Amino acid sequence: SGQLRIVMLRRLLLWRSGVRQCRAALSAQVAYKGSEMITVTDRCVQKLRQLADEDEFLRIMVEGGGCSGFQYKFTMDTTVQDDDKVFEKDGVKVVVDSMSLDFLHGSKIDYEEELIRSAFRVTSNPQASQGCSCGVSFSLK
């Protein structure tokens, strides 16, 4: 678990610095059991249908930062990159780059409405050991 965390941190730092070549060299160091899937909830699908134009989709990225070490970033996008994984459900798309997918493997993408905030959220992330109360940042197990 500690070795996996070091590898993941190293990969994120190199990749976010613009050194995408490290992806091929380091990808063999991390192996997952099962598929690299995420689950998109019905509430997420409904909200994306309301918000997204015909060619738009929800992009989810993981970046270094936040109060717990890593943070989720949600944006609307129109361009799928070569290293992106596309998840489709009921006509809407959620796109995750391959590096961020390492941090999101097995997670659920939801849309939550609360009194003080409404937002897309990553829930049930098996890679995260703890997060902040806002649900945006997390640390690795």
Question: Could you explain how this protein is built, in words?
Answer:
With 141 residues, the protein is of the alpha+beta class. The chain is 27% helix and 35% strand. The strands form two sheets. A six-stranded mixed β-sheet has the order 4-5-2-3-9-8. β2 and β3 (70-77) form a beta hairpin. The chain is globular. Residues 18-36 have low confidence and may be disordered.
Task: Chart the SSEs and their pairings.
Elements: H1 2-16, H2 22-27, E1 39-40, H3 42-51, E2 57-64, E3 70-77, E4 84-89, E5 92-97, H4 98-104, E6 108-113, E7 118-123, E8 128-131, E9 137-140
Parallel strand pairs: 1-6, 2-5
Antiparallel strand pairs: 2-3, 3-9, 4-5, 6-7, 8-9
Number of strands: 9
Helix content: 25-40%
- In angstroms, what is the radius of gyration? 15 Å
Using the alpha-carbon principal axes, give the shape: globular
Note the run of SSEs as H and E. Answer: HHEHEEEEHEEEE
For the biggest β-sheet, the strand order reads 4-5-2-3-9-8
Largest sheet: number of strands, sense, barrel closure:
6 strands, mixed
Write down the overall mean pLDDT: 77
Structure annotation, total helices: 4
Which blocks of ≥5 consecutive residues have pLDDT under 50? Answer: 18-36
Q: Distance between the terminal alpha carbons, to the nearest Å? A: 7 Å
Strand content: 35-45%
SS-derived structural category: alpha+beta
